[in-house]
Design goal:
The structure holds two protein chains of two kinds. By secondary structure, chain A is of the alpha/beta class. Chain A has a domain at 1-73 and 156-164 and 187-234: Rossmann fold (3-Layer(aba) Sandwich), CATH 3.40.50. Helices cover 36% and strands 25% of the residues of chain A. In chain A, a hairpin with a 3-residue loop joins β8 and β9 (213-218). Chain A is globular and about 50 Å long. Chain A starts with a strand and ends with a helix. Chain B is mainly α. Chain B has a domain at 4-196: Orthogonal Bundle (ABC transporter involved in vitamin B12 uptake, BtuC). Chain B is built from twelve helices and no strands. Chain B is globular and about 65 Å long. Classes of the chains: A alpha/beta, B mainly alpha. Chains A and B meet through α3 and α5 of A and α7, α8 and α11 of B.
Chain lengths: 234, 276
């Protein structure tokens, strides 16, 4: 029996007076790969922000297992306009993922720098360490942000549409990397995706949202369910 | 030049100006990248208004302006994160509103037009003896806090959601940047002028971003440009009896133009290499 990592207990989410999502309940175990699917405006990103600790639910609660305290989360947000022309080297961006571990010391330690280098090597971007982030291709930028997420956590990775704007080859590369994190390291993955076909291939659990939970369960069940059949399109 | 240094008021301006230029250049990189370029402009108008009140009431200008401007920067950040008022209109509201109040208050008391002029366009004589030590202490504090929190400030500027998810207190660091900016603006505005002080925040950062590609070198280059421009501007203003603020900004414009030119030539070379 695997340990429960995250438990959402009847949460509702919203902005100001508008409720986006209602009555969301689900449980994730260690090593799960959850894909959150649904149409635009279904509340996927809102839920992800809540799981990453950026928003508080309007009602209900999110229970994290004691091992993953707040901050032990590798988060890959959607790219912002600010980042696209931000003058920062790859090394600077990746190392900034270590900040949650060195709360007392304000400067990076040698261990931080080594950890950053290790993750850059794993993602094949150590050769780009001194290049500027804004000069990289979209795929390389996502690798940088993945390396930074690994510096922040080795247990839980939360990704918000990680392949937006990437070409098909790079997209499948990124998906493979994420799958590899899940299979060989046992990292728990929570990913928002538009691309339900790929989601079905890699994830072992699916959460289909449409202002509330349309479906939650294993991928095999999802493919047979009416929600799944309709969304995947046969 | 040696003759210039024999005046105590020039020495005072030199010390305070150099420190303020350093602070504004460092913070400027973050503000420009966070799309808060105009925050300096808004805050300097608030500072103008606060100093107008202080002059009329015969209070010490710095002691009134600093807390008021810190409060204003807090309100600005709150307004900007509120989706109903967008960042740039929030700054425009505060900036013009504060200016109007300041002018109204000053006009109620006649005979202080020189003060308005000095606050608007700056005066090298504005740094008096009693302010020097306070200015030095405050700007050193700004520098120390910036260096101490450099990594976290970088993380918050580059990617706020990620920083928040990893447990960095994003609101605290945003507030810190705002407070440090507020203090820097108040210290610099009397010498550089309320209308011109925000250029000290924007120009060095924009110039160094033309040529440098990693954050640390942008910050260091920005600080160097800022100090160089201030010293050159101060010397020029002494030589030509021109207002210090305007002289410093003109040197900044020249450096910006030069950096744009170098960037242009570099890119052209790269293109040539790639084509041939």
């Amino acid at each position: 029996m695997k340990k429960t990592l995250i438990k959402c207990d009847d949460i509702s989410l919203g902005y100001e007076n508008m409720t986006v999502l209602e009555h969301v309940s689900f449980e994730l175990n260690e090593g799960d790969y959850l894909c959150v699917v649904g149409e635009n405006g279904a509340g996927k990103s809102t839920l992800i922000k809540c799981l990453a600790g950026l928003k508080k639910p309007v009602s209900g609660q999110i229970i994290l297992s004691p091992e993953i305290s707040r901050g032990d989360v590798g988060y890959l947000p959607q790219q912002t306009a600010i980042q696209r022309d931000f003058p920062a080297s790859v090394r600077e961006v990746v190392t900034s993922g270590c900040l949650n571990k060195s709360r007392i010391i304000p400067f990076y330690t040698k261990a931080d720098r080594e950890l950053a280098l290790k993750h850059m090597r794993e993602l094949g971007i150590d050769g780009l360490a001194d290049r500027s982030y804004r000069e990289l291709s979209g795929g390389q930028q996502q690798r940088v942000l993945l390396a930074r997420a690994l510096c922040a956590s080795s247990r839980l990775l939360i990704l918000d549409e990680p392949v937006t704007g990437l070409d098909p080859v790079v997209t499948s590369e990124i998906y493979d990397i994420i799958k590899e994190f899940n299979r060989t390291r046992g990292m728990t993955i929570i990913m928002v995706s538009h691309d339900v076909k790929t989601a079905v291939k890699s994830a072992n659990k699916i959460l289909h949202l449409k202002h509330s939970v349309l479906f939650f369960g294993s991928t095999a069940e999802y493919i047979r369910s009416s929600a799944g059949r309709e969304f995947i399109g046969g | 030049m040696p003759e210039m240094l024999s005046y105590p008021f020039i020495i005072r301006a030199l010390v305070v100006g150099t420190l303020v230029s350093l602070c504004s250049a460092l913070l400027g990189v973050n503000l420009v990248l966070k799309r808060y370029s105009m925050i300096g402009d808004g805050l300097s108008h608030v500072a103008f208004s606060a100093m107008a009140v202080a002059t009329v009431m015969h209070w010490a200008p710095l002691w009134v302006a600093i807390p008021v401007v810190i409060a204003a920067s807090y309100i600005l950040l709150r307004l900007s994160s509120d989706s109903r008022v967008s960042g740039d209109s929030a700054i425009a509201l505060l900036s013009t509103g504060a200016l109007a109040v300041g002018i109204f208050i000053i006009s109620m008391k006649s005979g202080i037009n020189t003060d308005i002029n000095n606050y608007m366009f700056g005066s090298v004589l504005a740094v008096n003896k009693s302010d020097v030590s306070l200015s030095v202490i405050l700007s050193l504090a700004v520098l120390a806090l910036y260096v101490l929190f450099y990594n976290k400030i970088f993380a918050v500027t580059f990617d706020e959601p990620f920083a928040k998810a990893t447990g960095i207190r994003v609101d605290f660091y945003n507030m810190l940047i705002a407070v440090l900016t507020a203090v820097t603006i108040v210290l610099g505005m009397r010498m550089i002028g309320a209308l011109l002080i925000s250029s000290l925040i924007i120009f060095p950062a924009m110039s160094s971003m033309r040529l440098f590609k990693c954050f640390r070198s942008v910050v260091i280059c920005s600080a160097a440009i800022s100090v160089f421009c201030f010293l050159t501007g101060l010397a020029a203003s002494y030589e030509y009896s021109a207002p210090t603020g305007a002289s410093v900004v003109i040197v900044n414009i020249a450096v910006f133009a030069l950096f744009c030119l170098i960037d242009f030539i570099k890119n052209k070379d790269v293109l040539k290499k790639n084509n041939g």
